[in-house]
Amino acid sequence: MAIAYIALGSNLNQPVQQLDSALNAMANLPQTQILAVSSFYCSKPLGPQDQPDYINAVAKIETTLEPIALLDALQQIELEQGRVRLRHWGERTLDLDILLYDQLVIKSERLTIPHYDMHNREFVIVPLYEIAPELTLSSGEKISELINNFKNIQMELVIKTK
Question: Which interval of the chain is the signal sequence (predicted)?
Fold first, then answer.
């Protein structure tokens, strides 16, 4: 079984419900179990600012799905929840990204693990730190050190899961 961390984000069509539905769908993936889910946080959009704020979270899962099979399953969940890619970094009903998959490093046309820019995104690092404060990335970077880059950033807590 592999341990993977999945970033969840939504800013359309009742984002909290979108994340809840995605988590339910992930829990029903074959040979996959959700081990932890962070609180839900509100954050400003990364791209164009003429869109609603996002609700973000991170889930820790255990799975036997290989990375590409997991990516396919997550993209299917996105499609089932109405995901349409209108513009780069634009609004979306649901975005599911594989952040980490064990200590694998993958750079392919379809998938990059660790997620290529996760260490610069507070909406990833803050919830990831919440559920895995002792985590060390394959690069040797520690989440407990990366969180310091975001000490001055206030992200609104939407739903506390603990």
Answer: none
CA distance 157 to 55: 9
In whole angstroms, give the CA distance from residue 87 to residue 72: 21
Number of domains in the chain: 1
As annotated, the active-site residues are 83, 92, 95, 97
Q: What is the pLDDT of residues 53-86, one digit of tens each?
A: 999 999 999 999 999 999 999 999 999 998 776 7
For residue 43, give the nearest of 100, 77, 83, 89 by alpha carbon.
89
Averaged confidence pLDDT in the chain: 91
Q: What is the CATH number of the domain that holds 133?
A: 3.30.70.560
What pLDDT is attached to residue 161? 67
Identify the band that residue 151 occupies on the pLDDT scale cut at 50, 70 and 90. Answer: confident
Query: In terms of pLDDT, which residue wins out, 38 or 156?
Result: 38
Host domain of residue 31: 2-159
Residue 89's CB is within 10 A of a number of other CB atoms, namely 11
70: left (phi over 0), alpha (psi -120 to 50) or beta: alpha
